[in-house]
Structures
1.
Amino acid sequence: MALDVVSQSRCFGGTQFTYQHQSSETGTAMRFAAFVPPRADQRPVPVVWYLSGLTCTEENFTVKAGAQRIAAELGLLLIAPDTSLRLRTGCWILRRCNATPMVPKLQNGQLR
């Protein structure tokens, strides 16, 4: 999978990135944001994944939460994927295209 850098900017001594890749699962372009703290240059750092919700893009957490300052202080790498639904050929994509258009199904605790 090839990752394209959509944007990057310095932030609290670290770097805020937005990446894009082509998803084979949804057949669409997907984005995610990543804040890389300053100490990631010297050693491995823990990763925190933030999943916003079904209508949120990668920008919701990145822009509104202001978590980069604390993540920089604690040495945390933040990942915020675009969790919004995708529309492809008349049905909403969560993991797979449902037999019933625009109605997600719950199977084994996962939306399908």
2.
Amino acid sequence: MKGSESMGERLRARGACLVVRRRLQPHLDGELDAARAAAVTDHLTRCDRCRRQLESFARIKIALREAAGATMSPKDQVALRRLRRFADGLGDDSAP
């Protein structure tokens, strides 16, 4: 963060990152409504950290597709949902 930002601006930015990080995977999967998708996209233009996290999720998604082929079995889909819930928890900075 820039030294010229006030404490309030830094806290608002951190709060925005927390919200966006929870929406990265649904954003990547095209599951957000238009307004939320636009808000995430806007945030990503200004936040390197969140953008890098989205890029990591995208690389994981590509690797999973390549490993499983174009289609996934129902068992693999369940495993992927579990992995997504786990990944969502990693972005939760409020956890101890």
3.
Amino acid sequence: MALVEIVANNLHAGANLRKLEVGSVVDVDDATAERWISTGKAKETDKKKGEKLTFEVATPSAPTAELYALQKQLPTRWQQKRNARMMLKPRWKN
């Protein structure tokens, strides 16, 4: 883990992608710290304490089989809606 001080005003990070304020000190993993420093978004700091940021990956709430079944229905529902709209639309004007 590495402590870095934020120097860019357009940096969003963390599990909820909140905006990090310029001058705030955060504790991030080494790879993230190197990437931010190399792109000029942060600089190394000698301060002792910083807010620890964790990066999480969200998982789908529905089982994969259930999601697959829903995705298969999408084109069918779209076609049904399109066909219903075509039935209501006049084919020629008087």
4.
Amino acid sequence: MNAKGVAVAMAAVPSAEPAHQLAGARGPTEAHTPGDNPAIELSELLHDAVSAGIVERDDAELIARSRIAGHRVADIAHHRGLRPRTLWDRRQRAELALVAARAAC
């Protein structure tokens, strides 16, 4: 393959660079909406679920800290003086409650 063929092949390879992906996904005039960001969408879902009594505030915070902020469940457990398995189970129950509530809609 010559240099021109390599350049064409490289141009077709998707980039792992987020800025590159966003640039290709939207035109320069299109604005981002809050629904475009999964973290914002999950945050809003958790807020609504707490307001509706689907999950407790502490469980929503656990989901947000571990799923959005990327904190390790073991670190959160240590900070709260709990065993990691306790928080893993609590998070799983809360997430299942969210799924069940969503399925009921």
